Amino acid sequence: MAQPVVSERVLACRSDARSLWNVLTDTDRTNRAIGLARLDLAPITSSSAARYLVSTDLGGFHVEYEERPFEWVYLKHFKILRRMRSGLLAWMEMAFELDETKRGTRVTMRLAVAPRIALISPLLRIRSAQTLTRMEREITAVDAALARGERAPSIRRGHTHGEALTRALRALESTISPTIARRLADHVRDADDADASRIRPYELADAWDLPRRDVLAACLAAVPAGMLELRWEVVCPSCRTAADALPSLSQLGEHASCQLCDIEIDIDLDQAVEATFAPSRAVREIDAGPYCIGGPARTPHVVAQAILPARGRATLLAPVEEGPYRLFVRGGAHARIDVREGASPRVEIAAASLDGGTLIDPLTIAPSGALAITSTSPDETHVKLERSTWARKAATAREVTAMPGFRRQFSSDTLRPGMALKVSRVGLFFSDLTGSTALYSEAGDAAAFKLVQDHFEVLIAILEKSGGTLVKTIGDAVMAAFLDDLDALTASLEILRAFEAFRAHGELHGRTHIKLGVFAGPCYVITANGVLDYFGQTANIAARLQGEARSGELIVDASLADHAIETGVLDPTLIRERYAASLKGLDHPLEVARISLFRSS
């Protein structure tokens, strides 16, 4: 094999390393910018570190190579080695180093290409120089934009159909805030293809400084308006990238797998399933790529990653920031890492000691310390150091399915029959209209039915305004779900107040009253009678607390009442009684609070 052709460029940038890192490590964007070709991917199931087989055109050559995980240390360097399966090249490596200076950051680019025959080395030198020139031009443009306080230049190839976008905007403006509708339409029209192809509502909300639920509601409303399409991504708990993307909840299974991390994913609606959006194809054509699948920007919570050689050693550099981290070895072995001042500057650990899970006690290491991992395995793999805490940007299925707009606009998007997926916590509200049964015989079916429907309108309006969503009506009873049980208590108090006005509407109304129960905890989500429903002990307790209530009362568990008092939501004088309720299905009594607006209740 001929000697590698090595080319290098050094750039003096004005921007700080952190700003440059965030853009340069978005390798999908960079590869689009310098004109590289799209990738065709196939999974690799062998025991090598490579996880995908890539086919593409590179510098005038068609190549097929093994895509290995990138290696990097946050804010310092990153590189990728690609081994060719066929063609005139044996391997290539691209590396970047960032060194902060008094005037900014020095960026060193190094491209090494190994030909299979020496004859093509002169051509490779030319192609390498051209690649680095395009890269230099892009980094210079990025640096100039950042120095001006602007975003990196947009990379956009898809075509927008202006008339279709205008029609969708008009439809959307009739249902939501026109300001948010216009901002969303502008994003659909102007965003990079890569950004537009995966719209995350909470990211937009944070960038626009708007309430997250408002932007999520806008994205949901944009689907029937014809502007966006909704999809559900199954998210790996380690790399936090999409292991799969599905158009409907009905296509979810109980388990999935991540090709990159080589782990099985237990599907729940709390963390494992995220709602994302993309422009409707009638509105904008998107070049979704991919152009790269492994840059550090794809996994911003990973502060260091390295290839762990067969029967070898890899060293990860701990970050400067103190805090909790996690060491992860492909396949699922992991350990807690605590970075703190005063700890050892070097820690050694055998990868085999992590098999089957995590060490009981966290390993401690000093900031910028060296974490050395040794392997006795005959196979190479990769290891990474991840932040245990991060800014949560995902609109999870738990949150989305509890949105009133989702229930109205996507009522047919349900789990497949027999599927039950867990949510770690949901606040459930139950109501019962007392005195309504007698009205059917005393006032007639039509009058009684209208009264029941009128009371539904009062309840549902308050529930949705308070962040809840109607799950179902059961006769004259209501079941609703809340992400926060404190919101459920707030809504319940408002319902008790509103119901006094409702009862004053006439004689029939005055013969009725309302009783309520709220309880929060883990639940399972299922499809029942064609809608998403909740079942389990939490639902049972919430219904039985409502059964404990008398007319005009709300029953909640004592801990929720105490929390509501601490936060100023509940006036403690409204608690008429605290007692231990013996509820069917519970081994021990539950401490509850009986709440009423009026002492006469």
Q: Could you tell me the strand content as a percent range?
A: 25-35%
**Protein structure class:** alpha+beta
The first-level CATH class name of the largest domain:
Alpha Beta
Largest sheet: 13 strands, mixed
Q: Helix segment count? A: 16
Give me the count of strands: 29
What is the domain tally?
4
- Helical coverage, percent range: 25-40%
List keywords for this structure.
601 residues, alpha+beta, Alpha-D-Glucose-1,6-Bisphosphate, Chain A, domain 4, 8-stranded mixed sheet, 16 helices
Topology:
Layout: E1 5-13, H1 17-24, H2 27-33, E2 40-43, E3 52-58, E4 61-67, E5 71-73, E6 77-86, E7 89-101, E8 104-115, H3 121-147, H4 162-173, H5 178-190, H6 193-196, H7 201-208, H8 212-222, E9 228-235, E10 242-246, E11 255-258, E12 263-266, E13 273-279, E14 302-308, E15 313-317, E16 323-329, E17 333-339, E18 346-350, E19 363-365, E20 370-374, E21 381-387, H9 397-400, H10 404-409, E22 421-434, H11 436-442, H12 445-465, E23 468-474, E24 477-482, H13 485-503, H14 507-510, E25 513-528, E26 531-535, H15 537-548, E27 553-557, H16 558-566, E28 575-581, E29 590-596
Helix pairs in contact: 1-3, 4-5, 7-8, 11-12, 12-13
Structure, explained:
The chain is an alpha+beta fold and 601 residues long. The protein has four domains: 5-147, START domain (Alpha-D-Glucose-1,6-Bisphosphate, Chain A, domain 4, 2-Layer Sandwich); 162-279; 301-387, no CATH class; 414-596, Nucleotide cyclase, GGDEF domain (Alpha-Beta Plaits, 2-Layer Sandwich). It contains 16 helices and 29 strands. Strands 1, 2, 3, 4, 5, 6, 7, 8, 14, 16, 17, 19 and 21 form a 13-stranded mixed β-sheet that branches. Strands 22, 23, 24, 25, 26, 27, 28 and 29 form an eight-stranded mixed β-sheet that branches. α4 packs antiparallel against α5, α7 crosses α8 and α12 (445-465) packs antiparallel against α13 (485-503).
